[in-house]
Amino acid sequence: MLAAVRALSMPVLDGARVTVSLGVAAILDGEDAFAQAIDRADAALYRAKRSGRDRFVVADDGLVSEAPVAHAAAL
Question: Which is higher by pLDDT, 60 or 59?
């Protein structure tokens, strides 16, 4: 997903770099509603935003792990 956003060509941005922050969560065994997974994904998203641009954070079993993303120039 992050690579796809980096590859976007948006002439209206006049060469500005596009970044994305993502929060991801799976539905855990025993959860009775999507709302719990959405809450964890939302918390992970805000941790990604606080950590800087172009990052994703995965929420897992109530724990949140951060994953920095390499810049497009490094790919």
Answer: 59
